[in-house]
Amino acid sequence: MWQQGPIDDPIRKQMSLRFVTGRPVSAITTQFLEWCCTRLQAQNKTSWLLIWDNASFHVSKMVRTWIREHNSLVKAEGKGVRILPLFLPTKSPWLNPIEPKWVHAKRNVVEHDGLLTAKQLAARVCAYFGCSYEPHLVLSEKVS
């Protein structure tokens, strides 16, 4: 599983990707959000309009609480990236701007006559989107 992060370069439309070991649960999602905010802050961004579908790990109480607390901390400290989540209507993939990108990527990445290893798949996906490979997000044993 992978999740798309913020676009680094609006001219080239380069994406940041993170792969996930295991299922993308709420604890992984908050790690992903933290990673995205760190990257955006390094680019001197102060806010992030996050367009999401209604996957359970996007709308969970844990994730909503994390975003609320993160935004409060950004406001109190006067630095960081504020997250403005926008949830798409349920069962409306045509409104999600990432869906066509996944379709085209799949056509260009998969091996039609055999299976790819996880490493091969990650390398091909990163090459297709022109992004660097980042270590997988994983749950710590304490959380799982």
What structural category characterises the helix and strand content?
alpha+beta
Give the topology string: H per helix, E per strand.
Answer: EEHEHHEHH
Give the helix level as a range of percent: 40-55%
Task: Tell the overall outline.
Answer: globular
Determine the strand fraction and express it as a percent band: 5-15%
Q: How many E-type strands?
A: 4
Rg, nearest Å = 16 Å
Distance between the termini: 18 Å
Please characterize this protein's 3D structure.
The protein is of the alpha+beta class and 144 residues long. The protein has a domain of 90 residues. It contains five helices and four strands, in the order E-E-H-E-H-H-E-H-H. The strands form two sheets. A two-stranded antiparallel sheet has the order 1-2. Helix 1 packs parallel to helix 3 and helix 4 packs across helix 5. The longest helix has 17 residues. The chain starts with a strand and ends in a 15-residue tail after the last helix. GO terms for molecular function: nucleic acid binding.
